[in-house]
Amino acid sequence: MAVNLPPHYHDAEARYKKAQNPEDKLAALKEMWVLLPKHKASEKVQADLKTKISELTDQIEHAKTAPKKAAPGTFKFPRQGAGQVVLVGPPNAGKSLLLTKLTKATPTVAAYPFTTREPVPGMMDHEDVRVQLIDLPPVTADAYENFVTDLTRAADAALLFLDLADDDGPAATLAVVDRLKLARRELVPPGSPPPDDPAVYALPTLLVANKADDEAADIRLEIAREALGGRFPLHVVSAERGDGLPELRKAIYDVLGVMRVYTKQPGKPADMTNPFTPPIGSTVADLAGKVHKDLEDAVKSARVWGMGVHDGQTVGRDHVLHDKDVVELHT
Ligand SMILES: Nc1nc2c(ncn2[C@@H]2O[C@H](COP(=O)(O)OP(=O)(O)OP(=O)(O)O)[C@@H](O)[C@H]2O)c(=O)[nH]1
Ligand SMILES: [Mg+2]
Q1: Residue nearest to atom 9 of ligand 1 (CA)
Q2: One domain, residues 171 and 115
Q3: DSSP states along 90-135
């Protein structure tokens, strides 16, 4: 099968060949990537372009950062909301586009790989709670930003991307799992026991198969199911069209394993707008510690409205709370 290249592609290619510096070469390559028809017959050219783009990007980035040492902890995102979830995956899988759909963040989205070079945070609303999402640069067997190791350690969970518009999607996603493993970050299904090796940090992970709108998505999904063998809970979505996003929002909140608890002052109505989000199974004393660190020891009892209690029932400090309980703490 011949690759029918549009005329502008050849113009861009001519610019690439004439370019005198890596920046101009990269700009021309990115144009070629956008103009290249993406189908079976052009797969080799696509792969070739991807490699050149990623190599040049690395080269340019390296030249920029090599003289000065990167300051440690340059990227730190103090946890906000009910928890922090990182978006990891191969290049071009739609991580950044998904972030724009779930939050108000505006990372660059583009039709070529290695668009995201730095992490971008955003807050996702889910009912009356918020979850912090962090878009990360892509990971491949060869391309890995070292700060990803720190940012994944700080996170509570991960979304692992699979590109349903790419025949190499499953392999690219498995390469992400393997590369993170080298950095002692293990992507595991939610609810897994802690890893034996303490140097390994396990991240509860949801698999996000994106670009479900692609015409060959179904067949690729079947192949992916075989390759990934039900390793993670699967969410099939289209960031572009919005399919599956309401379910994904809920799953992202659920994977954090937290509950919502509303506090109230005696004689006053509860503040139903800003729940605390302690881990499921937390007690009255645990909640008190979240309200104020001195309160954890000081709290003696609580009145609770909600599940498993009569309205306003008085309970001890070891009482286990439930989702949506309203709690009045007493010292
Ligand atoms: N058809 C389709 N295209 C999508 C979808 N999601 C993302 N894209 C496109 O895929 C390309 C890459 O999207 P990005 O969000 O930049 O991908 P990324 O994973 O952040 O890429 P890197 O930053 O390189 O890792 C863009 O052209 C998007 O418009 C989708 O659900 N369907
Ligand atoms: Mg991106």
Answers
A1: 94
A2: yes
A3: STTSSHHHHHHHHSS------SSS----S-EEEEEEETTEEEEEEE
Ligand 1 lined by 92 (C-beta under 6 Å): yes
pTM to 2 decimals? 0.78
Q: What is the CATH number of the domain that holds 230?
A: 3.40.50.300
pLDDT in tens, 59-100: 777 677 665 554 554 788 988 999 999 999 999 999 999 999
292 alpha carbon – ligand 1 mean position (Å): 42
**Ligand 1 pocket mutation pick from 109, 120, 139, 166 by most atoms within 8 angstroms of CB:** 109
22 plus 54 within the same structural domain: yes
210 ligand 1 Cβ < 6 A:
yes
Number of domains in the chain: 3
* pLDDT for res 65: 65
CA separation for the pair 280, 322 (Å, rounded): 7
The domain of 11 spans 7-65
pLDDT digit string, tens, across residues 175-207 = 999 999 999 899 999 999 888 887 889 999 999
